Amino acid sequence: MSEVAGVLKNPVAKGIGLFLCATLVIICMYLSVWLGITNVDWRDILHAYTHFSGTNIEIIVRETRVPRALIAAAVGASLAISGALMQGLTRNPLASPGILGINAGAGFFIVIALSFLHISSMSALAWIAFLGAALTSVIVYGLGAFGTERLTPVKLTLAGASMAAFFSSLTQGVLTADQQSLDAVIYWLVGSVQGRSFTLLLHVLPYFVIGWIGALLIAAKMNTLALGDAVATGVGQNPLIVKMAAGLIVILLAGSSVAIAGPIGFIGIIVPHMSKWFVGQDYRWLIPYSALLGAILLLLADISARFVMMPQEVPVGIMTAVIGTPFFITIARKGGWR
Amino acid sequence: MAGKYISLRYGRFSQLIDKKVVRVNIVLIFLFLIVAIISLGLGDYVIHPFDALKAVFGMGDAMQNLVVRNFRMPRIVLAALAGMALAISGAILQGLVRNPLASPDIIGVTDGAALATVGFLALFNTSDNAMTVSIEWLPLASFLGALGVAWLVHALAKKGYSTVRLVLIGTGIAALAKALTQFLMVTGPIYLASRANIWITGSVNGAKWNQDILLLVWFVFFFTVSLWLARRLNAHELGEGVAAGIGVALRGDRTLLIIAATALAGGAVAFSGGIGFVGLMAPHMARRLVGSGHGALLPTSALFGGIIVMISDLAGRMLFLPLEIPAGVFTSAIGAPYFIYLLYKSRGGK
User: Fold this and answer.
1) Which of A150, A155, A182 is facing B197, going by the closest CB pair?
2) Interface predicted TM-score of the whole assembly (ipTM), two decimals
3) Do A187 and B186 touch (CB under 8 A)?
4) Could you read off the pLDDT of B175-200 as tens digits, one per residue?
């Protein structure tokens, strides 16, 4: 938390950086549509949308590649924003939906819904994932963000880790009793953006959009909050309301991400740190940078997941864990948690 | 010495024993046996506790003898041993890192063992679900996994040794191991996934006598080692400066203690899977009753650990009949809220 300013100092440089990031997102999305077991070139993509004639390649573009790229971008951006907000709220550089157990909570609720309530409609599952994410967040936040005495980052991390262990153990318990759902759910439990339909994205898109806009709106208030509750109150801000709003946005973004792609870890930790390196602590820049960098990182992870074990695909949640763990450990070793 | 202590002298050996500790432990041993006997009688086929006790010595009727001696006893013994081993491991780790929130599962040992186990199942599995290598080797694999992770976490946290760092790095490595385990489960056959899933959650179902004996030998050896080191563990808990000041060999002791704690947890995990939170809960319960002197803490924690896992196993067998729920589900269901409570209580301080 030491570096206040990033490498990009003035607003012009930051603006140009933002533009470059946005360009990179577009390029990565194009790559994501292009590359895979079957390579699709841009003429096919264009053709699939202008003169759809039902050839295999056009179906691949419309049914798998394009939804997949869009979902990866949206989920990556949302996870990164929620990570940035959580790190600010809890003043814990290691906070993220994965580490604090929110993904595991949502996962448990989804397994319960699939296994006991036999719910399989995707929009219902999205709501259930929200519920799980919300419940877990409230518990972990309740420990971390409110009250007079703050939990140290370590304790918060431990609380999250134990919540994660709790929910994943219950999930496994349900799955051992119900072998059929195990088969259906295990792939979801790892986190993947593959094979999700476009309508699924449309179901959760409103929540994503509300979350993104909300995050940008409270960015300035987050800056004040970072100076401490006392200062925030002094300038006439109600810290509790800001915290609640930020918490709600985190739940909205993390919950919809889990609902659509399963628990994808580490994006929420890595990306805010990368963004801070670029633009420093200012949330008004941090939020958009996190969003774009998150989208880029998840798109790249998803693309590489296709090639690591050709022809089999590695779920992208595993790719992010493999990339993210060394990063997490570096932060832990550097002592940034103090 | 009259009053609070009993003194024990034999040649050069002398030890003061707190009477309260003795009383607490006698009550716990009693409880331990009662739980074990009740557990022997309950299940699909209910046996009166008295008959069950007779059957233990081979004096019941043929059916009761079979059920008790061949099916229930091995699993109850395994549950008790696993719980005891995990509890001692937790007590040692908590003393060593001077953090009451440390435990083998949070430091990643359990997840390392799970990864090695699933890796073993995946590696030696043929397409028709047969194993190319005897399943007897599985515990060795999971023990090596536990040891590997313990070493990795220790090595990464070594620089400027801070307990906080140890815990955080453990959490990170645990997350990685979990992801890789899931990867193996996703890419492997369904059969592997369901089997691995039961193992990871932690179950003592299907225990065999030979497993019990192996774990017993393992447990007794490392339990003795840790009792021998217990006195010096007390010094560690006072802080590294004090420990060095009164002439405790810091490095050597720490390595030995970590090996003992890992070996105990690894052994338990190898045979019974990832039964979570026992290593965290049991030492806390014990500390409330007997204080934090490790000579008393270790045996008392062990008794608590054994009781917790036996009860969890019993609950898993009985509550959702005819389904069997792994014991680990229950230990986590009690353990996680308890952990949160501990955290909540300790807020403010470091």
Assistant:
1) A182
2) 0.73
3) yes
4) 888 888 878 877 776 666 666 776 66
Q: Of A101, A96, A130, whose CA–CA distance to A113 is shortest?
A: A130
Instruction: Answer whether B194's CB lies under 8 Å from A182's CB.
Output: yes
Identify the CATH homologous superfamily for domain A11-334: ABC transporter involved in vitamin B12 uptake, BtuC (1.10.3470.10)
CB contact under 8 A, B180 and A98: no
State how far the alpha carbon of A226 is from the alpha carbons of A7, A89, A253, B171, B335, in Å. Answer: 20, 8, 21, 26, 34
Q: How far is A15 from chain B (nearest CA, A)?
A: 34
pTM, two decimals, is: 0.78
Question: Which residues in chain B (277-306) have CB-CB distances under 8 A to chain A?
Answer: 277
Structure tokens at A7: 């490498």
A247: helix, coil or strand?
helix
Work out the number of other CB atoms within 10 angstroms of the CB of residue A293: 24
Across A123-130, average pLDDT: 77
Among candidate residues A68, A75, A98, the one with its CA nearest the CA of residue A257? A75
Give the containing element (helix H, strand E) for A272.
Answer: helix A267-279
* Cβ–Cβ gap A158/B344 under 8 Å: no
Cα torsion A198, A201, A206, A209: sign: negative
Residues 95-114 of chain B whose Cβ lies under 8 A from any Cβ of chain A = 101, 105-106
Is residue A188 within 8 Å of residue A257, measured between CB atoms?
A: no
Is-cis flag, bond preceding A311, omega within 30? yes
**Chain centre distance of CA A97:** 7
Residues of B in contact with A318 (CB under 8 A): 179-180, 182-183
Closest CB to B336 among A143, A165, A333: A165
Q: Tens digit of pLDDT for each residue in B251-260?
A: 677 778 878 8
The shortest CB-CB distance from A337 to any of B168, B326, B347 is to B168
What single-letter DSSP state applies at residue B131?
A: B
Go through the domains of chain B in sequence order and give each one's CATH number. 70-345 (1.10.3470.10)
Q: Does A99 touch chain B (CB under 8 A)?
A: yes
Element (H, E) at B8: strand B5-10
